[in-house]
Amino acid sequence: MSRTVYVNGEYLPEEDAKVSVFDRGFLFADGVYEVTSVLGGKLLDFDGHATRLARSLGELEMSNPITKEDLLEVHRELLRRNAIDDGLVYLQITRGAADRDFAYPVDATPTIVLFTQAKPGLADNPMAKTGMKVITIEDRRWGRRDIKTVQLLYPSMGKMMAKAAGADDAWMTEDGHVTEGTSNNAYIVKDGKIITRHLGEEILHGITRKAVLRFAREAQMQVEERPFTVEEARAADEAFVTSASSFVMPVVEIDGAAIGNATPGPVAKRLREIYIEESRKTAI
Ligand code: PDD
């Protein structure tokens, strides 16, 4: 059975959904996106994703074609129509279709697309038990990584470099310091302290990051928001990543070197449990 997707106000079978070849998302990657996870048919941290979406649009002087209330309704309707229990909702808004010109068009109507991805057992990903392996690569993305744009080619290349090296993902580095993973925020744990890069234009302000750091502080764990080096990561007791699709995922190897005893550490395990439990409670 084909999926129902949402395009510019209409719910359509995926094979009938169309976007113009002149769409600036296609021609210029002139668009922003969000990925919201779904557990038990409910959306995790919808509010956080809607707030970041509004910020991304604002930074690109793009108008927001939908209110937060209507956006929530579209998310819920897609979950209903596609009978999603565990999975993801992908949302993309572009500046719309216009004759090709580098300058922003004045009168384009934004394009809005949403679709679902079913991920049965999303919270029971077996990788959480074994942990993942990462390699480090130079961060060659543009300088406004705080805007969640659809320019994802370098992160895609990073994933392929990781695969080729027999790893699961890549951590990107700048001046010897880790910025973030290809599609997640990066953390290390040393002597019980959780260390993750501070917010700025160099990384995406993860919605999962925000929640996890809050839960960590509430559980009296120590948190330090600062850049950390690859050497520090190799010498760490634990490492992990966070994202809407992986929640909290332990990292057990960096560039072929084991982290701690090469198994998921207690801090990552505890944070994963707390995050999933607390997020389920507030899911809408
Ligand atoms: N990626 N950093 C980058 C570069 C990301 O692409 C993501 C999310 C994150 C984590 O953000 P959040 O916790 O809000 O998901 C950090 C999504 C999941 C994706 O592109 O599929």
Give a verbal description of the structure.
The chain has 284 residues and is α+β, with helices and mostly antiparallel strands. It has two domains: 4-119, D-amino Acid Aminotransferase, Chain A, domain 1; 127-282, D-amino Acid Aminotransferase, Chain A, domain 2 (Alpha-Beta Barrel). Helix content is 29%, strand content 29%. The protein is built from eight helices and 15 strands. The strands form two sheets. Strands 7, 8, 9, 10, 11, 12, 13, 14 and 15 form a nine-stranded mixed β-sheet that branches. Strand 11 (193-196), helix 6 and strand 12 (222-225) form a beta-alpha-beta unit. The chain is globular and about 55 Å long. The model has no long low-confidence stretch (mean pLDDT 97). Bound molecules: N-(5'-phosphopyridoxyl)-D-alanine (PDD). N-(5'-phosphopyridoxyl)-D-alanine binds at residues 35, 180, 183-185, 204, 206-209, 242-245.
Summarize the structure.
This protein has helices at 24-28, 46-59, 68-81, 127-130, 153-164, 207-218, 230-234, 266-282, and strands at 4-7, 10-13, 31-39, 42-43, 87-94, 111-118, 132-138, 169-174, 177-181, 185-190, 193-196, 222-225, 238-243, 247-254, 257-258. It is an alpha+beta fold.
Descriptive tags:
15 strands, 9-stranded mixed β-sheet, binds N-(5'-phosphopyridoxyl)-D-alanine, 29% helix, 284 residues, 6-stranded antiparallel β-sheet, alpha+beta
